[in-house]
Amino acid sequence: MKTLVTGAAGFIGFHLASRLLAKGCEVVGLDSLNDYYDPALKEARLSRLLPLQGFRFVKADLADRANTAEIFAREKFDRVAHLAAQAGVRYSLKNPHAYVDANLVGFVNVLEGCRNSGVSHLVFASSSSVYGMNVNRPFSVHHNVDHPVSLYAATKKSNELLAHSYAHLYRLPVTGLRFFTVYGPWGRPDMALFLFTKAILSGEPISVFNEGRMERDFTYIDDIVEGVVRVLDRIPAPDPAFDTAHTDPGISSAPYRLYNIGNNNPVSLLDFISVIEDALGKKAVKKLLPMQPGDVAATCADIDDLARDVGFSPSTPLSEGVGRFVAWYKEHYGPQGT
């Protein structure tokens, strides 16, 4: 099976490519290596993949329509794991066009590539951010998600709609995964765990938004990757239970599925900080701040559908996952984090 992993130098893409290669898959990793965060970290991840048997790297921008079409036509991928995107809620307030280019234009180019080259299954990254103003928890794929509160969330909701259209029109099998706060070794520098660890080691204050009255469904990277691999192997089919008179956002008459992929165990932000402090053996200096625009107070994933269909069962305790991140961080950046 030749699998394209877009965003292969990114956090989740790197881990997914590593896992697929360990299974004996042929993996083509694609990434633009942009500078949204330090490209040195992306290069370091990539340096771990390049020596592995079965891996090839293509540097490309998916927003380049002609080049993306040529890659798909040349490679004839069996499956695609589309993880490349412009990430981050707060950055979308400053640079909205980056989200349009990467998350909308780039995504349509991927859909066209899959359609025209006979890809058997497209799995793409959506986000828990799509739940927006929804306060019904745990968040379910059967809930309405028509009220996003950030441009990032709106682009991810748009991805889901575009993907469903292609599944309906062209019978392209597509599965969307709504990721919930993924963390672990090689994580992104703009995520809370990385920011907090770096600041605490340096003796600098950490920014605690909404004065700590936040909850997140933190999900360890190994659990996430296990779920993605299982989903890649399960090609969706039309759901015979779909009723046009009583439509359910979680099912479809097209070969299309949506799943939450999270831990189903939300943790308060202050408790999360305590776990980091324990792993570092050092207390944080907290700077309490108001809620940021575009953010939500709490997330919690209903993962019943994913558990039913592929046996997804996250098992990594938060203290263990944070401990592994801290060990990686100190090894990569030095004991003092510099």
* Total helical segments: 10
Shape: globular
Say how many strands there are: 13
Structural class label? alpha/beta
Share of residues in helices: 25-40%
Major sheet: arrangement of strands: 3-2-1-4-5-6-11
* Alpha-carbon Rg, integer: 19 Å
The helix/strand series, from N terminus to C terminus, equals EHEHEHEHEHEEHEEEHEEHEHH
Rounded mean pLDDT score: 96
Q: What is the distance, rounded to the nearest whole angstrom, between the alpha carbons of the first and last residues?
A: 41 Å
How would you characterize this protein structure?
This protein is an alpha/beta fold and 338 residues long. It has 10 helices and 13 strands. It has helices spanning 11-22, 39-49, 65-75, 96-117, 151-170, 192-202, 221-232, 269-280, 304-310, 318-333, and strands at residues 2-6, 26-31, 55-59, 79-82, 121-127, 174-179, 182-183, 205-208, 215-216, 219-220, 256-261, 267-268, 285-288. The chain has a 7-stranded parallel beta sheet with strand order 3-2-1-4-5-6-11, sandwiched between helices. A two-stranded parallel ribbon has the order 7-10. A two-stranded parallel ribbon has the order 8-13. Helix 5 (151-170) links the parallel strand 5 (121-127) and strand 6 (174-179). Helix 1 (11-22) runs parallel beside helix 2 (39-49), helix 4 (96-117) packs parallel to helix 5 and helix 6 crosses helix 8 (269-280). The longest helix is centred in the N-terminal third of the chain and has 22 residues, at 96-117. The protein is globular and about 55 Å long. The mean pLDDT is 96.
